[in-house]
Automatic annotation (TrEMBL):
Stated role: Participates actively in the response to hyperosmotic and heat shock by preventing the aggregation of stress-denatured proteins, in association with DnaK and GrpE. It is the nucleotide exchange factor for DnaK and may function as a thermosensor. Unfolded proteins bind initially to DnaJ; upon interaction with the DnaJ-bound protein, DnaK hydrolyzes its bound ATP, resulting in the formation of a stable complex. GrpE releases ADP from DnaK; ATP binding to DnaK triggers the release of the substrate protein, thus completing the reaction cycle.
Subcellular location: Cytoplasm
Family membership: Belongs to the GrpE family.
Compositionally biased intervals (Basic and acidic residues): 23-44
Compositional bias of kind Acidic residues: 45-63, 215-240
Protein name according to UniProt: Protein GrpE
Subunit structure of this chain's protein: Homodimer.
């Protein structure tokens, strides 16, 4: 049996906290009387030292403190704030998108109004060109100028409308007179005095037309009335 003193190899000072270590180096176990195995003894001592070191390392691990309720509450409030800010950003983006659409719509409307005012002043000139074409007087240089003017206003969106046979629409036609016409089921344009013009949905001038009115029941009544005298005459002749 020997006394061993563990000391620091650098300082030479002993471990004051642990104290001297007593190791039993006797080959015969005094309790059992058996011969000891030095290798087994060393293995047991190594396992004991390793277990001691592991326990020391476990003791050195700092404990994780419990999370305070205030920290958890702040984290929850932060998440709610993030959601709220995200919704605010989406709302601002939607408002900005609607604003852009409204500005673009207003820009188109302003451009259409300005174009309508300019082109509206040219309608009498277009009427003269149309009348000259109808009388075969659109010739030479006047023809080239007239066709160029018509092409330009068409490019600006001007549309001419009002043709014979169109169904009468009081929103775009101006009826100068009504004429009873047989064999039609709805009011129909039968003559155009002056064509109409529009830009998009904006009517610059309604078409002035003569409207054919369906005769309908009136024609049947007239036919029935025309048949009655003949019947009465026949009855009178029979009576005579």
């Amino acid at each position: 049996m020997a006394l061993s003193d563990k000391s620091d190899p650098d300082t030479g000072d002993g471990d004051q906290n642990q104290g001297p270590v007593i190791r039993d180096n006797r080959r015969i176990d005094p309790e059992t009387g058996e011969v000891r195995d030095p290798e087994a003894k060393k293995s047991e001592e190594a396992e004991e030292d390793e277990a001691t070191e592991v326990e020391a390392e476990v003791e050195d691990i700092p404990e994780i403190p419990d999370t305070p309720e205030s920290v958890v509450s702040e984290a929850i409030n932060a998440d709610e704030r993030v959601v709220e800010l995200t919704n605010d950003i989406k709302r601002v983006q939607a408002e900005y998108s609607n604003y852009r659409k409204r500005v673009e719509r207003d820009r188109v409307a302003v451009r259409e109004v300005a174009t309508a005012q300019v082109v509206g002043e040219l309608l009498p000139v277009l009427d003269d060109i149309g009348r000259a074409r109808d009388h075969d007087e659109l010739n030479g240089g006047f023809k080239a100028v007239g066709e160029a003017l018509e092409a330009t206003v068409t490019k600006l969106g001007l549309e001419k409308y009002g043709e014979q046979g169109d169904e009468f629409d009081p929103n775009v036609h101006e009826a100068l007179t009504l004429v009873p016409v047989p064999n039609i089921s709805a009011q129909t344009v039968i003559e155009v005095f002056q064509p109409g013009y529009r830009i998009g949905e904006r009517i610059l001038r309604p078409a002035r037309v003569v409207v054919g009115e369906p005769m309908g029941d009136e024609s049947e009544t007239a036919e029935a009335a025309a048949d009655e005298p003949a019947d009465s005459t026949e009855d009178g002749e029979d009576k005579k």
